[in-house]
Amino acid sequence: MPRVIRDTQDLGPGKPVLIYGAGERGAQFARDLLRAGIPCRGFLDSFKAGECCGLPVYRYQDAPAQLLEECRVVIASFLHGAIANRLSLDGCPQFSVLADRDEDINPVPLARDTEEALDLLATMPISLGRQGSPAPRGGGARLACNALDQCLWVGMDGVKFCCFMPDLLHYQPASRLVPGLESLRRGLYARIDEGRPTCCGSCMFLTPSTCRPGSYRIRSLSLGHNSRCNFECSYCKTRKNLRTGSDGLALRLVRDILGSGRLRPDLEFSWAGEGEPVVDPDFEGIVGLLLEGGSKGLIYTNASIHSPLVEDGLRDGRLRIVTSLDAGTPPTFRRMHGVDAFDRVVETLRRYRAASGPDGISLKYILTPDNAGEEETARFVRLCGALDVHRVIISSDYTLAANPFAGQTEDFRRKAQAAGLEVSLSPWTA
Ligand code: SF4
Ligand code: SF4
């Protein structure tokens, strides 16, 4: 894993330097290297080739392999996370990230070894908040967590055991990634057993168990790496369109993981995350690989684009989908999602429903001031009937401490149940 350097003094003696990033920051660092008498062989860049500060600039994919072996790479770019992911995955042996003195770079992915990562994780809160966990009971029970034993979360910035954890590791070849997660898991459990601080220590999902598995084998794969989206939902709190796509990294990662022999035969995957899965250029590649491998999956899609792969997966019962429709009429749909796509979405759902069994599709309705009206929810219930969809999820803003639509939620639920729909409320009870 790369380390952070703040100036040329942090480099120490070693191979000549290649600077990744032929922009202003890289050019300044090249001048600093010259002043410090540290040899620099040129620049790498994701887009440019040519010359900068009198030194050659190589497009990364065209750079001579020997040059990369002979040099240590210093990333001098604000896109350092994506570049570090790329270098990790390509097995680049030595690279570091240049940061300003006061620049805060997420430290865990840049830890140099497992112990350093564990030390850093002990100081970082999980996103679930501090919940407090029970002390281990007698009878040989130790604290354990399902996610630590068998889950892998692939996010925009790297991978981790669960969505609550701080980001852990950059993408790497699975030959190093899975053992890296295994040693982190062992280290976390060792610290939990010793009563030392960890990020997991306060988590409600850490519970007494007498059957903590001996090794990490993946049964649940959560994909959340894609941030591309073609909607503008009024309630969206994701980092959508922050990046143009997964750029092949997640596809390579999934391919490597499938070849690692660490997957359980009953692997299930889900794809939610920060954008619309179907617009990820690697959607078909990733889901195709997972389905070919025999796993089952759940896709959270806005259904604005029909996917033949999703339709096939629904047909043979290996895929299920959840779509947040949030409306029963085109004008409300437009207010909720920022696009005029009600008819298109309904048509895609109709095609998916024609292929799937009754439980293949769940429609979600996130209540907001824009769609909580009685007439709108009644139209939604009627639409579910017309589409012959049986499962409905009524939801609200997760970040609020209480449901602001308690009365409407209860009316909506009664109406939907009276129409024969199976209703779940999330996260509220009513
Ligand atoms: S204990 Fe909590 S934070 Fe730690 S891996 Fe499990 S779910 Fe995630
Ligand atoms: S579909 Fe999802 S990611 Fe896209 S805008 Fe809506 S909530 Fe955000």
What do these coordinates show?
- With about 425 residues, the chain is α/β, with parallel strands linked by helices.
- Among the domains are: about 5-105, Rossmann fold (3-Layer(aba) Sandwich), CATH 3.40.50; about 305-430, Aldolase class I (TIM Barrel, Alpha-Beta Barrel), CATH 3.20.20.70.
- The protein has helices spanning about 25-35, 65-70, 80-90, 115-120, 145-150, 175-195, 250-260, 285-290, 310-315, 330-335, 340-355, 375-385, 405-420; strands at about 5, 15-20, 40-45, 50, 55-60, 70-75, 95-100, 140-145, 150-155, 160, 205-210, 220-225, 265-270, 295-300, 320-325, 360-365, 390-395, 420-425.
- The protein has a 9-stranded mixed sheet with strand order 10-9-12-13-14-15-16-17-18. The chain has a 7-stranded mixed sheet with strand order 1-7-6-2-3-5-4, with helices on both faces.
- Helix 4 packs across helix 6, helix 7 packs parallel to helix 8 and helix 9 runs parallel beside helix 11.
- The longest helix is centred in the middle third of the chain and has 20 residues, at about 175-195.
- The chain is globular and about 80 Å long.
- The relative contact order is 0.07.
- The model has no long low-confidence stretch (mean pLDDT about 85).
- Bound molecules: iron/sulfur cluster (2 copies).
- The site of one iron/sulfur cluster has 10 residues, from loops.
